[in-house]
Specification:
The protein contains eleven helices and 18 strands. By secondary structure, the protein is α/β, with parallel strands linked by helices. It folds into two domains: about 60 residues, Urease, subunit C, domain 1 (Roll); about 325 residues, Metal-dependent hydrolases (TIM Barrel, Alpha-Beta Barrel). Strands 1, 2, 3, 4, 5, 15, 16, 17 and 18 form a nine-stranded mixed beta sheet that branches. Strands 9-10-11-12-13-14 form a six-stranded parallel beta sheet. Helix 2 links the parallel strand 7 and strand 8. Helix 4 packs across helix 6. The protein is globular, with a radius of gyration of 21 Å.
């Protein structure tokens, strides 16, 4: 047994001073005085928090490892305060829509995990016969797009496919994560392909509203768990509030780029900011913050969607040809704290939004996401007062291509532990403390 002494330990939802005791890789207790035979490290005012759980990460291995890959993604995750990731079924190749593809995925991560990593199953038309087997093999749930994903191997799911998938997922008490945009015709302003105004108009809020309403209806019809990923429009908040008030098993996430960035500051040709749904205006951003603070939005994840810089069309600035996705897996805690503190939120909220609530989505709350007794001792130590100007040296991803470069951030990760073993400290990773592959254990089917 050993201990960490800090003035700020996020324990049972509160900030407390004391000594966190760790034994056999798990949280043993929080005490004021450690037993005489216990070695204690004093970290002073450094915050000790449960490691973040990022349930929305595109690691892109196998097949597109030149975009990211398990080694760089999981190393970078520790920089951002994340000790657990769940990998999306795309943009790897093959996509994780079959048991054969899942087997290939498992072969590809050997000896490469620096953070704990689990997996979602893909939901696409004509592959639903594989979904039950993927869940039985330990995927945590399903992921579907209601619009073009950008990857030919992962086509959009029509609503009948989604309904059938929900009925399967309900038997396993597993969620369906949904990219909620349904395309409809739009009239674009007569502006250049480099115009962010034109790109923003090409994916209007109505696309999200139509999709979210459809998912609320299917959630009500099937009783299955539905999770709306990367909410970008505040216009959907009233319908989401009504669905939650109704008691539907519906959860919602948003991402740092919708909370930290605003359309008014995106320059024409600034394709490094392109994502889908798009970043909207400042008033929209503030409404998302209020919904997060009120608990209507459940938590925050990265939607880390990297690619080689040339796919962002940085040379031409063409928003309609550039790959859509924001890279931020190595920045999550700093980004969220920088903006949250300005709005009066405390560090307990950071622990809730980055660790506790996303662990609940994946039904990992009995292992991850908090410092309660018996949980895995996955810890992140961070300094909420540290400020830094983001440079290449702060990034851990394969491609140092992010819209946050040059921005001043507050809150910096100093160390991370995996099951009580030091995994990262002050810019250096351990080769001894490595992440584990995680597999869901679903309840017996009825």
């Amino acid at each position: 047994m050993w201990g960490l002494r800090s003035q700020r330990i996020i324990y049972q939802g509160r900030t407390q001073a004391g000594i966190l005791l760790i034994e056999d890789g798990k949280i043993h207790d929080l005490v004021q005085e450690a037993p005489s035979d216990v070695s204690v490290e004093d970290v002073g005012e450094t915050v000790v928090m449960a490691g973040g759980v990022d349930t929305h990460v595109h690691i892109n291995e196998p097949g597109r490892t030149d975009w990211e890959g398990f080694e760089t993604a999981t190393r970078a995750a520790l920089l951002g305060g994340m000790t657990t990731l769940i990998d999306m079924p795309l943009n790897s190749s093959p996509v994780t829509t079959t048991t054969a593809a899942f087997a290939a995925k498992q072969m590809s991560y050997k000896e490469k995990l620096y953070a704990h990593t689990g997996f979602w199953a893909g939901v696409i038309p004509h592959h639903l016969h594989e979904l039950s087997a993927l869940l039985e093999e330990g995927t945590f749930g399903g992921k579907a797009f209601l619009c073009d994903s950008g990857i030919d191997e992962f086509p959009a799911a029509d609503l009948e496919t989604v309904r059938e998938a929900l009925l399967i997922l309900k038997r396993f008490d597993a969620p369906l994560l949904v990219h909620a945009e349904i395309a409809s015709p739009v009239v674009l302003p007569e502006l250049s392909q480099q115009s962010y105004t034109r790109y923003l108009a090409s994916r209007p809020a109505q696309w999200e509203l139509t999709a979210i309403q459809s998912m609320i209806d299917l959630c009500r019809e099937t009783g299955a768990r539905v999770h709306i990923v990367h909410l970008s429009t505040a216009e959907a908040l009233p319908m989401l509030a009504a669905a939650k008030d109704e008691g539907l098993p519906l959860t919602v996430e948003t991402c740092p780029h919708y909370l930290c960035l605003q359309a008014e500051e995106i320059p024409d040709g600034g394709t490094i900011y392109k994502c889908a749904p798009p970043i909207r205006d400042d008033a929209n951003r503030e409404a998302l913050w209020k919904a997060l603070g009120d608990g209507l939005i459940d938590f925050v994840v990265s939607d880390h969607s990297p690619c080689p810089p040339e796919l962002k069309c940085l040379d031409t600035g063409d928003f309609f040809k550039a790959w859509g996705g924001i890279s931020s897996i190595d920045l999550g805690l700093s980004l969220l704290w920088t903006e949250a503190e300005k709005r009066g939120f405390g560090i307990e909220r950071i622990a809730r939004w980055l660790a506790e609530a996303p662990a609940q989505l994946a039904q990992l709350q009995h292992q991850k996401g908090s410092l309660d007794r018996g949980r895995d001792a996955d810890l992140v130590l961070w300094d909420p007062e540290a400020t830094f100007t983001l440079g290449m040296e702060h990034l851990g991803t394969r491609h140092k291509c992010t819209p946050y470069l040059g921005k001043t951030l507050k809150g910096q990760v100093k160390a991370a532990y995996l099951k009580g073993e030091l995994a990262y400290k002050d810019g250096k990773w351990s080769e001894h403390a490595r992440g584990e592959a995680l597999f869901a254990t679903h309840p017996s089917r009825s």
